[in-house]
Amino acid sequence: MPSPSRRHMIQLLGGLAVGAALPAVARAETLPDWSSDVGILRRAWETMHPGLYRYSTPEQITARLDGLAAAWTAPASFRDRFLALTRVTASIRCGHTYPNPYNGGETVVSRLYPDRSLVPFRFVWIDGRMVVTHDECAQATFPRGTTVTAIDGVATPEILSRLIPLARADGASDAKRTSLMEIRGDDRFETFDIHLPLVLPLRDSALFTLADGRAVRAPLLSRAERRPAAVDGSPGNDANPWALDRGPDGIARLTMPGWALYDSAFPWETWLGGAMDDLAGDGARGLIVDLRGNEGGLDCGNVILSRLIDRDLTLSRSRRFVRYRRAPEDLHPYLDTWDRSFLDWDDQAMPDPMRPGFYRLTRYDDDGETMRIQPTGRRFTRPVVVLCDAANSSATFAFAQAVKDNGLATLVGTTTGGNRRGINGGAFCFLRLPASGLEVDLPLIATFPDTPQPDSAIDPDVLVPNSADDIASGRDVQMMSATDLILAA
Q1: DSSP 467
Q2: Fold entry, domain 121-221
Q3: Cβ proximity of 129 and 154 under 8 Å
Q4: For residue 371, pLDDT beyond 90
Q5: pTM assigned to the model
Q6: What are the sequence ranges of the domains in the chain?
Q7: C-alpha dist (Å) from residue 453 to 159, 311, 352, 421
Q8: For 361, phi and psi rounded to 5 degrees?
Q9: Which CATH class is domain 243-487?
């Protein structure tokens, strides 16, 4: 069962007017008691969340939810209450469990962005510093490669340390958490934009300290002024979201910024299979698959894998489990999803003596094909390099794991997201909390490996981090490294 990209899957239900139940923006002391929502969240998690206790004990979860109930009873601002919720959801250490702005409705979104509090540039984190990749300041204050070391006197490593506990990621994957707290321009709702005002109150302008010692004051942006780059591979986009180029060096470069094509009419399997077959026949010197920034979506990588093998490939075995056979009836009014059959697995979920408290899900992986990829089309025998980074945390994580474990390609770049101990996803409900008007994504299926695995993601075969100088000069050192590897083969 493919897992949709986290930032896109909720657009399936984006038209639901859940925000209408939320009161207008109010002063902190007029917010009503939201603690009844915590009871709904507690029951949903305890009966349906398959990864709730993967990294936490029942006692820890109980204590955190009790603390949330107290926070949602006491007078507080919307942002303070949202911060309390985010701390609890992030503590589960699940990359698919969080209050999702795409699912929250416009009223919730307006409360997350009530003023001008967004930094006027896009950036990445390098060694605890913010390195600008795109200046959005009208005064052109932050040229590409500018390094910011503090905001309003707070050092950037301290800012990052406050943000990391709020980011959704699997297990110990702090590289993923750091990646989420960057501004890349590829999302309508940047995680950093939502969370920075929760830990560092800013409004209208801020003082930015730069690595050269200068301090410059610059105006902040509103949400309307944030100019995202085009989001490739968005649901409903029927055009080809990928690019395949052949350079004068004879190397083919396949750029795949997203695999979230579950709601697209683009015939991606036919196109990708044909492209791989053509490369196998036209003498390409090698192939570079660029997955940087790609969280996942459909299992598009399986088409590539099928052209790299000459015998059946058995993927790393991870069995699927759920916590329930039928969702509790009293929760049905609060559960939205694109497939109501997720609420009743019936005999496709069977008790498993090896994992008490879970049901072994047979709906997707007992067809004899899910764990195995067969050779298809024309085999590509030239060198293959995959560019990876911390965004790769779902289907792209699984692809990176498959190529590395089976020696099918060389991974170049930085550590992926995801986790070798398995993730939660595959099917989702969107839990609507009526008192607050907030929504929390609820993954329904957990994968667990058959053998013990470390609490870690996938390290590249060749580690190639970026530097501020690389960004300033526009050098793509990871692509350059991948090119050199193929040319030297």
Answers
A1: -
A2: Pdz3 Domain (2.30.42)
A3: no
A4: no
A5: 0.88
A6: 19-112, 121-221, 243-487
A7: 32, 26, 20, 5
A8: -90, 120
A9: alpha beta
